[in-house]
Design the sequence.
């Protein structure tokens, strides 16, 4: 064997095949006999079958591959600075990144934590190796996104809001929906959270809108950094989707799992829709200045990514295993986006509450109106006046739009399940759990809380299922507070101690900026607290009125805005 | 209509294009850096995992069915007045982690490729090849058990700093267990008759020499306190068994058996351990100096070290016969064990803990 060197030997040394390598790695595990591992994160599912095709990769090739990806990312960030990216970037876009990047590192690192929950349930070590790589990937995603955020803070015209980012994440009335998203990955039944909610739905269906559609819009706004980072993040995602699918396949043949799987697919799909479409839909449609009529709107993207790629090619094939797919919810989500203006109403809500946000939201203008009307016929009649009011009320000294009586907006209830505002008025509903009244954005969300997240499901005990807890209604935290005091308590004040972090415009002169004094004298109220205080009759009347909706008053006459 | 020319948007979106309140606020300002200035690691890490005692206004919003929230301080017996004090000494975030891991992968791959190319594996002493197959083969399972324990543990910590330190520790361990696995597979190609690829696992599961170690590892895998796992691995297992076998046996014996490759593969783990040890010592140091729970923590951590120390020392003693299996006996087990015990004493001294009875 130790014969002399030949050129042939140098250039083509035989190694072990990847199949051999992964099968050896898969043999590292054993069943303990001295001490049993505790089932610390229980599930009501039964996992039996060893999955057929787990991904084949070992860490020795994984780490260099990832480092190479990193090199490209960091090289591109340097190049963006050399190319003066920020001179031409659209502030309207970067401002929304203050919200997006405040939210996303927590769900990412939660996905890493979730790998602990599925690793011990993994049938077969190859899948566990897949989970290991995903754990390190998600650590990558969380910290690479923190790095991007810091980079924006250092180079963008207005760093306020980036500077308080993780504090803001824990406090803001908008980022609250992202916490439901992240915690959903890691709490409760291990399979419900770390497999179905995280991988089978969030990663498989919704990362395309997050990490592919968002970057395209970023580029249209002169932001080349976000695409670099997020397309790199997305390139890890196919591995995660593979992990999740393998795990799913390890359960799907056992009919006793079907009931739970149907429950969790329904919960996870609906809630992902409610949360991701609210946030990403708003960023893409309202955070852009690009009004090219040839580009796809968010609903067109949704149709491609969620309806075609996910629903038709991923979910529907599960039917052949005997799983009932909730077709109704998919079309209901579609209707919410297309017919019920979900994204537009959410954007309106984010704008109305600007003082308790921590980024700037500028008014939409004529150019935007035209595009919206083109993509969403009827948009102008419903939302045009609102944005005119918003522009008019963006000048310090005007009544803050949240408390303005002129425009006709009625502040919404919150959904106890998805934590989004109940903006589709006609779908608003209430329910009771353990004698307490709760509000929901939709029947599906009501079902999630009252039926799915309980100790029993359709007569079957579900001892591992999680519970919705905590102060889920943000407005409850500041019921009865003066707006100025609430903003101070949130910490959404600039370093001078009086200028508000958020601003309802993109005007960067000091004279244009709202301070605490401009908003003092208005009292915040929680619609849920008020509703719970009502008599039964008043409550019913209130719900009926709420469901009937409101109309924005025409914004005419003399006006300091540009319309 | 526009009467407010002063309110035109700035032309550039770059830093410094306008001056207004907050326009120079270019540092994360929501945590207290450990040093004078926040490190990049701190910026990437702190407060990403929120805490109701800091900024989590609405508290954890999901609970486990028994009422335990998404993160709970009760997942370890150790207590802290401020869980956020700890910073990882190795300051890892994704970029540094991948750079280091990737460099190690590249180095190991090069050493193995070049060694094999030069026919080095064929010159390994025969008795030594059997040692590699049986005992490096068995030991790789220990590393795997520890790596997966840490993968489990990284879910439970109360801060991002703790969990990420445990996560990278897990990543290092799992890389190393695979390094050993692939290495044995690759040199097997150059050895006549190959290397019995099942010998390692057989020894791990059945050979009495390894049963103490397997017991010690399973004890760690089965622990439900994540900090007990972290401490048992880095403070106890690593010096008493890990370094004993890696440095006290492989690194010392290999050269005498014409093996210059295995030490390179194995010594990467010694480098990993130095960093993980530093992180763990720092965490213990913080906990032992906690303003409210210093004594409580000292008692709990000492108990862990005592418990796992006994198991690991017994396991270490059972490994003794391995030292007499290679043809050339250049290292003595007694000396290696003494060194391991010394190392444990030194580590305890560094953390401020009393040494456990087994080495006192
Ligand atoms: Fe991710
Ligand atoms: Fe992922
Ligand atoms: Zn809802």
Sequence:
């Amino acid at each position: 064997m130790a014969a002399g060197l030949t050129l042939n030997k140098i250039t083509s040394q035989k190694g072990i095949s990847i199949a051999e390598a992964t099968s050896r790695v898969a043999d590292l595990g054993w069943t303990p006999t001295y001490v049993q591992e505790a089932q610390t994160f229980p599930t009501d599912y039964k996992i039996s079958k060893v999955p057929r095709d787990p991904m084949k990769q070992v860490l020795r090739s994984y780490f260099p591959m990832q480092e190479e990806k990193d090199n490209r990312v960091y090289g591109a960030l340097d190049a963006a600075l050399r190319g003066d990216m920020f001179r031409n970037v659209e502030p309207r876009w970067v401002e929304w990144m203050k919200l997006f990047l405040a939210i996303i590192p927590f769900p990412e690192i939660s996905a890493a934590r979730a790998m602990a929950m599925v690793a011990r349930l993994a049938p077969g070590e190859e899948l566990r190796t897949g989970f290991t790589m995903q754990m390190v990937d998600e650590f990558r995603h969380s910290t690479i996104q923190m790095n991007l955020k810091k980079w924006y803070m250092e180079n963008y015209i207005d760093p306020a809001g980036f500077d308080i980012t993780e504090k803001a994440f824990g406090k803001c009335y908008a980022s609250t929906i992202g916490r439901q998203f992240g915690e959903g990955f890691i709490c409760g039944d291990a399979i419900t959270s770390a497999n179905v909610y995280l991988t089978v739905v969030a990663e498989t269906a919704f990362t395309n809108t997050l990490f592919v559609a968002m970057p395209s819009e970023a580029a249209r706004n002169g932001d080349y950094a976000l695409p670099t980072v997020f397309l790199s993040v997305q390139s890890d995602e196919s591995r995660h989707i593979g992990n999740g699918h393998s795990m799913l396949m390890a359960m799907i043949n056992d009919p006793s799992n079907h009931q739970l799987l149907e429950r969790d697919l329904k919960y996870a799909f609906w809630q992902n829709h409610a949360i991701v479409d609210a946030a990403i839909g708003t960023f893409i449609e309202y955070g852009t200045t690009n009004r090219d009529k040839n580009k796809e709107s968010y609903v067109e993207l949704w149709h491609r990514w969620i309806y075609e790629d996910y629903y038709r090619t991923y979910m529907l094939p599960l039917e052949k295993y005997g799983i009932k797919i909730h077709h109704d919810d998919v079309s209901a989500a579609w209707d919410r986006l297309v017919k019920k203006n979900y994204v537009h109403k959410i954007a309106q809500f984010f704008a109305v509450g600007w003082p308790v946000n921590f980024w700037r939201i500028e008014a939409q203008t004529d150019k935007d109106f035209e595009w919206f009307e083109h993509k969403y016929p009827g948009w102008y009649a419903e939302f045009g006046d609102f944005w005119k009011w918003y522009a008019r009320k963006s000048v310090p000294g005007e009544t803050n739009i949240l408390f303005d009586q002129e425009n006709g907006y009625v502040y919404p209830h919150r959904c106890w399940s998805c934590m989004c505002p109940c903006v589709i008025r006609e779908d608003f509903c209430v329910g009771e759990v353990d004698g307490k009244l709760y509000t929901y954005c939709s029947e599906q969300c009501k079902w999630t809380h009252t039926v799915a997240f309980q100790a029993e499901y359709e007569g079957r005990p579900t001892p591992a299922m999680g519970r919705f807890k905590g102060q889920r209604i943000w407005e409850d935290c500041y019921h009865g507070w003066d707006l100025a005091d609430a903003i101070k308590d949130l910490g959404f004040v600039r370093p001078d101690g009086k200028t508000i972090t958020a601003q309802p415009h993109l005007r960067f002169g000091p004279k244009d900026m709202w301070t605490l004094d401009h908003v003092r004298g208005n009292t915040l109220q929680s619609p849920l607290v008020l509703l719970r205080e009502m008599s039964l009759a008043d409550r019913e009347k209130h719900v009926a009125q709420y469901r009937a909706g409101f109309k924005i008053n025409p914004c005419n006459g003399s006006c300091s805005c540009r319309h | 209509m526009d009467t407010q020319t002063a309110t035109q948007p700035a032309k550039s979106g770059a830093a410094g294009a306008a001056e207004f309140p907050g326009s120079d606020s270019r540092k994360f300002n929501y945590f207290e850096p450990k040093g004078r200035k926040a490190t990049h690691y701190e910026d990437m890490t702190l407060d990403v995992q929120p805490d109701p005692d800091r900024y989590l206004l609405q508290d954890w919003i999901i609970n486990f069915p028994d009422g335990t929230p998404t993160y709970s301080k009760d997942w370890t017996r150790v207590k802290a007045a401020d869980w956020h004090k700890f910073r990882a000494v190795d300051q890892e975030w994704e970029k540094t982690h991948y750079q280091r891991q990737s460099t190690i992968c590249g180095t190991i791959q090069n050493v193995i490729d070049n060694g094999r190319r030069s026919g080095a594996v064929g010159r390994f002493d025969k008795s030594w090849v059997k040692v590699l197959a049986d005992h490096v083969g068995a030991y790789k399972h220990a590393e795997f058990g520890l790596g997966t324990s840490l993968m489990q543990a990284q879910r439970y910590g109360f801060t991002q700093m703790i969990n990420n330190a445990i996560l990278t520790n897990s990543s290092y361990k799992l890389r190393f267990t695979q390094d050993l696995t692939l290495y044995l597979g690759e040199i097997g190609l150059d050895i006549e008759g190959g290397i019995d690829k099942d010998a390692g696992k057989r020894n791990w599961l059945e050979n009495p020499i390894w049963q103490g170690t397997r017991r010690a590892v399973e004890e760690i895998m089965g622990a439900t306190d994540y900090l007990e796992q972290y401490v048992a691995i880095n403070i106890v297992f690593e010096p008493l068994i890990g370094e004993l076998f890696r440095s006290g046996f492989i690194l010392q014996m290999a050269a005498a058996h014409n093996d210059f490759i295995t030490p390179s593969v194995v010594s990467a783990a010694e480098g990993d351990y130095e960093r993980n040890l530093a992180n763990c010592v720092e965490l213990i140091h913080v906990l032992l100096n906690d303003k409210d729970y210093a004594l409580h923590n000292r008692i709990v951590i000492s108990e862990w070290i005592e418990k796992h120390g006994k198991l690991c020392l017994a396991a270490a003693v059972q490994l003794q016969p391995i030292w007499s299996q290679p043809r050339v006996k250049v290292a003595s087990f007694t000396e290696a064990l003494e060194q391991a015990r010394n190392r444990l004493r030194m580590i305890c001294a560094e953390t401020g803990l009393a040494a456990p009875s087994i080495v006192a």
